[in-house]
Amino acid sequence: MQLVDIHTDSIILHHTVDNQKTDRYALHCHNFYEVFYFIAGDVSYLVDGKRYAPKPNSILLIAPHVFHGVKIESDSAYERISLHFVPSFLPLENQSILLSPFQTAYGYANVYLTDDGQKDFHHFFKQLMDCRYMDEDYRELSLRIRLEALLSQILFTSQSLKDRSESASSTTTVSSVIKYLNDHIGEPVTLDDLSSKFYISKHHLNKIFRKATGTTVLNYVIHKRVVMAQNLMLQGQSANTASAIAGFGDYSSFYRAYKKIFRHAPSVKQTPILLQ
């Protein structure tokens, strides 16, 4: 059942409800951009081989030439709004930035977006649907302006999800690096080794490590080794032996690091302190 239908040479918008279950995905692709806004129902989408079971108030971004289709899983009412448009409908100076989420979506990063129940997307689609009441003299202009507003909201949501994902990924990476360092604290380790092992540039590794721990990778390793050597000395090991076990290549580097951290030479007896 078609509730709303807007059809021009540049943009097509349908608000539709179906109640009939289907037994397969009707896969297809084309050369324009699509935004599917899911409202209700029991359906699944297949986008270039990846399956999505959308929640209410979520959207799917479909870039040109991407195979996709929907399967209605039950006879419950499947309600959605589908929006199709050609890129030339947007002002040339805005096309690159407003269409960037679709390029990300083509790599499966943000093809599926949700507004966490805020229903922000619905507001923008309603604004587009209301254009059907407008006079033809300015309906095209209103459609373009309101499409830009929707795409701006999609861009904002996509970037927010990306930032959250990168933050979570960085936290996971730092935790893995710290575990590795603690497990191998007495062994030779360099930023090049860590960069290769964790598939991350040395610059970015130090950046996320400092943000998470308050110090650099090298400073963390030196502190851990000095404390390890101090504990070994308290257990009866000589300073030379303790420094070697803790991973210092030579005694002079251990001596300098120890004195810098504890403000006295390794020969001075003192109760160990916790690493700050």
Classify the helix fraction into a percent range: 40-55%
Estimated share of beta-strand residues: 15-25%
Secondary-structure arrangement, i.e. CATH architecture of the largest domain: Sandwich
Radius of gyration: 29 Å
Top CATH class of the largest domain: Mainly Beta
Which tags fit this structure?
alpha+beta; disordered C terminus; Jelly Rolls; Arc Repressor Mutant, subunit A; 276 residues; single chain
Describe this structure in words.
This protein is of the alpha+beta class. It has two domains: 2-165, Regulatory protein AraC (Jelly Rolls, Sandwich); 184-276, Arc Repressor Mutant, subunit A (Orthogonal Bundle). 46% of the residues lie in helices and 18% in strands. The chain contains nine helices and nine strands. The protein has a six-stranded antiparallel β-sheet with strand order 1-2-8-3-6-9. It has a three-stranded antiparallel β-sheet with strand order 5-4-7, with no helix packed on it. The radius of gyration is 29 Å and the shape is elongated.
Structure described in brief:
The protein is elongated, with a radius of gyration of 29 Å. The protein is built from 9 helices and 9 strands. The N and C termini lie far apart (66 Å).
Blueprint (SSEs and pairs):
Layout: E1 2-7, E2 11-18, E3 33-40, E4 43-47, E5 50-52, E6 58-62, E7 68-72, E8 78-85, H1 92-98, H2 100-106, E9 112-114, H3 120-129, H4 136-183, H5 191-197, H6 202-213, H7 217-234, H8 239-245, H9 251-262
Antiparallel strand pairs: 1-2, 2-8, 3-6, 3-8, 4-5, 4-7, 6-9
